[in-house]
Specification:
It contains six helices and two strands; from the N terminus they run H-H-E-H-E-H-H-H. It has 202 residues and is mainly alpha-helical.
Length: 202
């Protein structure tokens, strides 16, 4: 079965508002003799190694994806938290930039020890891309990734069917008393469960 498996080797999000996570990541890299990264966290190799090793007979390549957001640097030049979906839809973040690099499977070391070095080198490349994106002294080079770019806009043709489906589903629920009760319960219990999950998950 054709599929994609997405892995975030850092294990958690890079959040400038939680400096302890960034500091812990950098001290781990220093302790292990690895390059200290500024705009990304130090990757851990285990899950990546297990995934690639298990799927190697079905893979021909791995895609290294780096994402950056415009409008997320404050007046002091410090990175802010990545925008939420609401902030993005309200145009507080004008564009999302995605840099994709295709790596042939044959170019990825099989042994975990060597794959660890390879993975960290990939994150060093990501870090350089993001330093250029966020911190470039030349303003013309800021908010851009190098190389040829393709601009992609969400067309009405792609978004309208989802809007009509979800809008129709919500409207049909709100037309009946039992539907309204279910709608309210979904909001209340969904929010409570979500808050509980966020507070107890490691």
């Amino acid at each position: 079965t054709q599929m994609y498996l997405v892995i975030f080797p850092e294990g958690t999000r890079y959040n400038p508002e939680i400096p302890k996570v960034i500091a812990d990541s950098q001290s781990f890299a220093e302790k292990e003799g690895l390059a200290i990264l500024k705009h990304v966290l130090t990757p851990r190799v285990k899950a990546t190694h297990v995934a690639i090793d298990t799927m190697k007979d079905y893979l021909d390549a791995v895609y290294d994806v780096t994402v950056a957001y415009e409008g997320t640097v404050d007046h002091k030049g410090q990175r802010k938290l990545a925008p939420s979906m609401t902030e993005f839809l309200c145009k507080e973040c004008p564009r999302v930039h995605i840099f994709i690099d295709r790596i042939e499977l044959k170019d990825i070391p099989e042994e975990q020890m060597y794959m660890r070095r390879w993975l960290h080198e990939r994150f060093e490349i990501k870090d350089k891309l993001l330093i250029e994106f966020y911190d470039a002294k030349d303003s013309k080079r800021r908010n851009k990734f190098p190389g040829k770019s393709v601009h992609s806009k969400l067309s009405l043709k792609k978004t309208l069917p989802s809007l009509l489906f979800l809008g129709g589903l919500t409207a049909s629920m709100l037309l009946t008393e039992s539907g309204r009760k279910l709608y309210v319960k979904t909001w209340i219990y969904g929010t409570l469960i979500g808050c509980l999950w966020v507070s107890i998950k490691p």
